[in-house]
Design a protein that fits this description.
about 75% helix
């Protein structure tokens, strides 16, 4: 029982954050427009500014589903990839660590104090833990793909 909790608590946390963020990514919220618009402008890839949220949201949805399947190690690796991108873009682009908060009219009313960035870091750590655990387990998908000799 304890072993299952060790696996499911980080999985539930990651999936909860990923799934609740889909509303923002798939509805074109002001926060999402700011983030992906900034990245699209910075990169010069206007399509990323327009459609990047859908791409990232879809990857998060797939990762969240995989975390509760027999392929949970792949879900953890996907989460690592998505969050590595998020952390990179927060640190090394004009996006920055502290994100603005918007009211219903789209007016900036404050900032998140770095909460979005912090959550990305926590999710990344949880996903690394899950991937490592799967890699070390003889029944894990990552173990079977990367370690097991046929």
């Amino acid at each position: 029982m304890k072993q299952k909790l060790i696996k499911y608590i980080p999985s539930v946390f990651i999936a909860f954050i990923f799934i609740q963020s889909l509303f923002f990514k798939f509805t074109g919220s002001y926060e999402t427009e700011f983030i992906f618009g900034t990245l699209g402008e910075w990169s010069g890839i206007t399509l990323f500014g327009q459609y990047g949220a859908y791409l990232v949201g879809s990857a998060e949805l797939v990762a969240a589903v995989l975390l509760f399947s027999r392929l949970h190690g792949l879900g953890a690796v996907m989460a690592i990839g998505v969050m590595s991108g998020a952390i990179f873009f927060h640190l090394f682009t004009p996006l920055g660590v502290v994100m603005p908060e918007f009211n219903a009219q789209g007016v900036v009313v404050g900032n998140d104090g770095g909460l979005l960035f912090t959550m990305a870091c926590i999710i990344w750590c949880c996903a690394v833990f899950l991937a490592y655990r799967d890699l070390k387990s003889s029944t894990g998908t990552l173990y079977k793909l990367l370690v097991k000799k046929v």
